[in-house]
Amino acid sequence: MDNSETHNQRIATMTFTSVYPLYLKKVEKKGRTKEELDQVIAWLTNFDEQKLQELIEENATFEKFFQQASLNPNAHLITGVICGYRVEDIENPLTQQVRYLDKLVDELAKGRKMEKILRGT
């Protein structure tokens, strides 16, 4: 993963709306549900279903998405490798938050138990 400012800016301007269907396809392909995906997103961001839908409809960028999020206090417990880099070592806060979400979606798709994905909360 490129840690350059260009890369971080590209992530900031990417829309959640464009990525959400890819997340959904990934988890459904592995036998998980939209409800489980939304539960994982809600755990990380504290968004309810209505707020999540609003952000999707307004085509919110990841920057706006995470500005409005109230990140779970246990988000720092999300560790591991995504795209060849350790999530906990990513320096740019927004890039790290997006990678937290990517990591949670990966764990869901890999069949990890929900209590483990949600870090026991």
UniProtKB/TrEMBL annotation:
Alphabetized Pfam families for the sequence: DUF2200
Record's protein name: DUF2200 domain-containing protein
Alphabetized InterPro entries for the sequence: SP1917_dom_sf (IPR023204), UCP033199 (IPR014580)
Record organism: Kouleothrix aurantiaca
